[in-house]
Amino acid sequence: MNRKKRVTIAALSLTAVLALVAATPARVALTRLMSRVVPALVKRASSPGEDADTTRASSLAATGLDIEQRARAAHGWRADIANSLARGSIIYYDTSGRATGQYAVTILRGYPDRVRVEIDRGSTRETFGFNQTSAWKGGVANPTAAQERDIRALVRFCPERLFVSRAGGAAYREAGQRIDDIRPMDGSSDWTSAPSSGASETQADQTIFDQVEVTDSLGPAASRSAAGDVRRLYYYVDTKSSLVSAARWLEPDDPRKSIDDEAASFTDVRVDFGDWRESGGVKWPFRIVHSTGGRVDFKLVLNEVKVNESLAEAVFQRP
Predict the structure, then answer these.
(1) What b-and-e string marks burial along 206-218, b requiring 16 or more CB atoms within 10 Å of the CB?
(2) Is residue 228 predicted with pLDDT exceeding 80?
(3) Which fold has domain 83-316?
(4) pTM reported for the whole predicted model
(5) Which residue has the higher pLDDT, 240 or 49?
């Protein structure tokens, strides 16, 4: 019996056991076990020269896990990851797609929804973040409503937001498949022009994604504004690799408006993830492209990501 057959039999056996377990706590525990075991089985089954992403995706599909669970397993995401620290560069673009500046950036995340961003502009350092209750900006006593909205949105600029949101009980549904024209983001250091949303300097290709919708809420309910820090996020999960390739949502132009306000106007926001590398047993995107209204406004090119650093709670608080 070859390795692929053994993997398929093992996956189906796990699925059968899961189906027989009626108690909810037991099902949850077994599902977590499967999310750890299945990637290991896939890794062992892959042959030299074989497409590992294809092998992984087909094996995950055989487990009976839903789309988010398969994505979590493919990413290697674990419940014990408390924080992450990323360093690299942020590159800004104007409306014509030309780069206007490149600066060093550090992004600290405390899961599920705390973030701190530091941008070193040479002579000055810009610092801002969200501490799970309020958004703040260094040197600014009272940020505007628009600034607070944009700072809070930084929490959503990462693929693992899908996993921590659902783990926290966010409403979740699968929204069918989508075909997108994308260009896989390569490791090029060229920053003189911005790629279009979800694109880079390489040739375009059509990719099939599984879409999932999550009702994303930031901070405790009691701390939300009248409009609410609530958005409906769509995640595009690559059917081939089960990696979260993009996140997309509508942002109210008026921060005081709710996403359910029929009189409000909205702008499409999209974040594309690429250049996947592993750190701390988790796959992270080292290239992140942010688009507003269909135009790229900034791009993150990371050079390192660390997991479970010794971060004091104070780093997420207003200075």
Answers:
(1) ebebbbbbbebbb
(2) no
(3) outer membrane lipoprotein receptor (LolB), chain A (2.50.20)
(4) 0.76
(5) 240
